[in-house]
Design the sequence.
């Protein structure tokens, strides 16, 4: 008798559970779906979203990158490489600049490290490829004609292009040492 009562209780609970579940399913059958279909509907992503990287220009239209290698040093997966050169007026630039997007983890550390705001991550994530080699972006693929998140910043207006006068000739600056004169 006791066993039969237990069995009836268990069966009752199972039927109640099934009824609740079916009720929820039927309720949602007639509701408008809240999901959005990609790519027909695209959400507007925040400006700080970290995806495809660009190299930006300053307000004068000049390349911001001074090829200081800080971004390459900060990159945890070593996917940035470049070569630096110097113009006659002392301004540095990257003769080539390469990012392997197949290796990049979009951490944003390169952007944090950059003193000139040259390298910036954008919300554009739609650039996947089947062939990994085509994910290697050269400078011409990265360089844009605007300032990205900060159009007004100009590194050289703050830092100057080149030092005027020789070392040790400025006010309060110690004279340079001839270290070879200390040799025995
Ligand atoms: S986002 Fe991260 S992984 Fe990608 S290039 Fe910058 S530092 Fe390297
Ligand atoms: S992108 Fe920025 S951190 Fe990287 S080399 Fe150019 S100036 Fe330096």
Sequence:
């Amino acid at each position: 008798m006791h066993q039969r009562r237990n069995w009836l209780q268990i069966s009752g609970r199972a039927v109640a559970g099934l009824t609740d579940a079916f009720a929820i399913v039927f309720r949602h059958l007639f509701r408008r779906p809240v999901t959005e279909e990609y790519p027909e509907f695209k959400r507007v992503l925040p400006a700080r979203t970290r995806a495809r990287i660009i190299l930006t220009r300053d307000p004068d239209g000049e390349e911001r990158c001074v090829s200081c290698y800080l971004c390459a040093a900060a990159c945890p997966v070593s996917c940035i490489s470049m070569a630096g050169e110097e113009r006659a007026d002392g301004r540095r630039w990257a003769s080539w600049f390469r990012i392997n997007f197949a290796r990049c983890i979009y951490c944003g550390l390169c952007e944090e490290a950059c003193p000139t705001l040259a390298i910036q991550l954008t919300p554009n994530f739609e650039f996947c490829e089947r062939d990994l080699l085509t994910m290697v972006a050269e400078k011409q693929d990265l360089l844009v004609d605007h300032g990205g998140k900060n159009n007004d910043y100009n590194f050289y207006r703050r830092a100057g292009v080149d030092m005027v006068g020789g070392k040790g000739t400025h006010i309060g600056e110690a004279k340079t040492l001839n270290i070879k004169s200390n040799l025995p």
